[in-house]
Design goal:
The complex is a heterodimer of chains A (159) and B (434). Chain A is α+β, with helices and mostly antiparallel strands and 159 residues long. Chain A is built from seven helices and four strands, in the order ααααβααβββα. Chain A has a four-stranded mixed sheet with strand order 2-1-3-4, with helices on one face. In chain A, a hairpin with a 2-residue loop joins strand 3 and strand 4. In chain B, strands 3-4-2-1-5 form a five-stranded mixed sheet, sandwiched between helices. Chain B has a five-stranded mixed sheet with strand order 7-6-12-9-10, with no helix packed on it. Classes of the chains: A alpha+beta (159), B alpha/beta (434). At the A-B interface, helix 2, helix 4, helix 5 and helix 6 of A face strand 4, strand 6, strand 12 and helix 13 of B. The structure holds flavin mononucleotide, iron/sulfur cluster (SF4) and FE2/S2 (inorganic) cluster. Iron/sulfur cluster (SF4) binds next to helix 14 and helix 16 of chain B.
Chain lengths: 159, 434
């Protein structure tokens, strides 16, 4: 895989860098931009971002590993992140995870062999009033029921 | 529930009308008129005096008086920064998300006024990374305001400049802590800083900085439009104004509600939220996010939602995140879920927190799954006692307060787990709630 930042990514990073008093501050936005381009952040990708901003590679790596949203492994096309914090647990988050694992044939923390689905456990998504909740890629799905999960999975199967 | 609402229009749960996020809608409600009038006719000191008179205290958790916080920023030229804390990560808390998606312009107007009050020319909205759509909404609102020249240079011809940007986090609860948020926006790991120096003097990029919660800043336009005295009339003498409460757990109508401070808990539970779900009785209550000590049903008697009443019962209003638990809920399991969370979110700088939080998580798991003896309950108490007050930031205390309060107030249940070698309560089932 080619881990060169695209011109569009470089431009977006340059624009981010104008917003802060130090270039270093653009590191987190730049990592988001790179992750959007590549899907995940390999060492080569992290290095490319660090070089672009003139930040030591070790510092960039330190930032990547501190924050849970930067991925150091590829994930499936649908990254299903189920909230396991208290309000969601009270409304059956564990059962939801079990239901998804069975339906998709994927265990939590793993990706399906066809590369389509990854299921992860995450902490409070700040949507506790509509528990149980999961985030799939950028979108929240709230007030989940077995029926809603069935419908979602049927939709993904077609895509 | 009488009393003017400052932030929302009604008491229906989860107001969801996408029009309210548009500039035209907000301007139709008189939006940005207050910022214009303030910048044209008031001095920064006038604004701070007005916010002080309102009596508003920060809505992010600690409840520090907002006007006083602004007045700590040293006068004089040189860069100063206003950071809006939209990291919203305290379990049980989901009020700021509503403000970001429904009323982004109100937040922007509040930030213009706040920046003017203590001399910040730059502001940032630090939004948790998971809020991808919310960040887009705020970005769009910022662009709309720039297009009108209500952000940028020489606002309303007054010579005042104010730039505003969105900064996205990347999934770290600790970045809600203000000094961690500052480190994060500097492009670093979110390690909390030792205080002092306080951010008002040495904050982002080493310059004077104010960190305020979304709800706090969103209340500012109302306060300046109607006057601090008017705001102070809402609520009680010591707890001024309204508050957004986000209610979740076992209630019939969970959601975000704006309620004048001083409202009895029973009114909120029964009249606003339709009571405990499934016709059950209340067992326990979290008043202000997962970090605060829990209350038993008996302790909620006479409870009033203001700053003082929860304090008199040994807990706090915190983030306004109310979690209701009905009879039949296992308190050991609830604690286990929370301890797993704090263990995951410890930044690792302080040994008592780095080592203590996983320890508490393991102990509660052992108790819940019936692999523990009295020894583990005692360890839970002693480990947590040693963590309290011995760390750089309050995250360790945020784990200790639930640990101690659950294990003390529901001790019988902890012991029942030992005696029965497992959890005596029913599972928390999926698919029955909605
Ligand atoms: C571990 C921890 C997490 C926090 N998370 C948040 C948060 O998500 N949002 C927030 O506004 N304040 C949070 N706070 C409180 C902030 O440190 C700070 O007090 C607040 O943003 C100040 O704003 P205010 O004065 O308007 O309340 C947190 C504090 C701690 C110790
Ligand atoms: S108390 Fe915990 S989260 Fe806070 S600085 Fe120390 S290790 Fe980090
Ligand atoms: S507990 Fe799941 S969204 Fe808050």
């Amino acid at each position: 895989m080619d881990w060169t930042l695209s011109e569009a990514s470089k431009q977006a990073i340059a624009e981010e860098a104008t917003k802060y008093p130090t270039r270093r501050s653009a590191l987190m936005p730049a990592l988001h931009i790179a992750q959007r381009q590549f899907g995940w952040l390999s060492e080569a990708a992290i290095e490319a971002v660090a070089k672009e901003l003139g930040v030591p590679v070790a510092d960039a790596q330190g930032v990547v590993t501190f924050y849970t949203m930067y991925r150091t492994k590829p994930v499936g096309r649908y990254h299903i992140q189920v909230c396991q914090n208290l309000s969601c647990s009270l409304m059956g988050a564990e059962g939801l995870i079990g239901y998804l694992e069975k339906k998709l044939g994927v265990k939590c923390g793993e990706t399906s062999p066809d590369g389509k689905f990854t299921i992860s456990r995450v902490e409070c998504l700040a949507a506790c009033g509509t528990a149980p909740v999961m985030q799939v890629n950028d979108t929240y799905y709230e007030k989940l029921t077995p029926q809603k999960v069935d419908d979602l999975v049927a939709g993904w199967a077609k895509s | 529930m009488a009393g003017p609402l400052v932030l929302l229009r009604d008491l229906k749960p989860q107001v969801d009308d996408p029009r309210t996020r548009d500039l035209d809608w907000y301007v139709g409600q008189g939006g940005y008129k207050t910022a214009e009038t303030v910048l044209k006719t008031k001095t920064p000191d006038d604004v701070i005096a007005e916010v002080k008179a309102s009596g508003i205290r920060g809505r992010g958790g600690a409840g520090f008086p907002t006007g006083m916080k602004w007045s700590f920023v040293p006068k004089g030229d040189g860069p100063k920064y206003l950071l809006c804390n939209a990291d919203e990560g305290e379990p049980g808390t989901f009020k700021d998300r509503l403000l970001l998606t429904q009323h982004p312009h109100q937040l922007i107007e509040g930030m213009i006024i706040a920046g003017f009050a203590f001399g910040a020319r730059q502001g940032y909205v630090y939004i948790r990374g998971e809020f991808v759509i919310e960040a887009e909404i705020v970005r769009r609102a910022i662009a709309e305001a720039y297009a009108k020249n209500w952000l940028g240079k020489n606002l309303w011809g007054t010579g005042v400049d104010f730039d505003l940007h969105v900064y996205r986090g990347a999934g770290a609860y600790i970045c809600g802590e203000e000094t961690s948020l500052i480190e994060s926006i500097e492009g670093k790991r979110g390690y909390p800083r030792l205080k002092p120096p306080f951010p008002a003097v040495y904050g982002a990029w080493g310059k004077p900085t104010v960190v305020n919660n979304v709800e706090t800043l969103s209340a500012v336009p109302w306060i300046l439009a109607k006057g601090g005295a008017q705001y102070a009339k809402i609520g009680t003498a010591k707890s001024a104004g309204t508050r957004l409460f986000s209610v979740s757990g076992h209630v019939n109508r969970p959601g975000v509600y704006e309620i004048p401070l001083g409202t009895p808990f029973t009114t909120i539970l029964n009249d606003v939220c339709g009571g405990v779900s499934g016709g059950r009785k209340l067992k326990a209550l979290i008043t202000g996010g997962s970090s605060v000590p829990i209350l038993t049903a008996a302790e909620t008697e006479g409870l009033i939602f203001d700053f003082e009443s929860p304090a008199s019962k040994g807990t706090m209003l915190g983030s306004g995140g109310v979690i209701v638990m009905a009879e039949g809920t296992c308190m050991v399991r609830a604690l286990m879920v929370l301890m797993r969370f704090y263990a995951h979110e410890s930044c690792g700088q302080c040994t008592p927190c780095r080592d203590g939080t996983p320890w508490l998580a393991n102990l509660t798991k052992m108790i819940e799954t019936g692999q523990a003896s009295m020894n583990e309950i005692e360890l839970l108490m002693s480990v947590s006692k040693k963590m309290a007050g011995n760390t750089i930031c309050p995250l360790a205390d945020a784990a200790v307060m639930p640990a101690q309060s659950y294990a003390t107030k529901f001790r019988d249940e902890f012991i029942a787990h030992l005696d029965g070698k497992g959890c005596p309560f029913p599972a928390w089932t999926f698919g029955e709630g909605h």
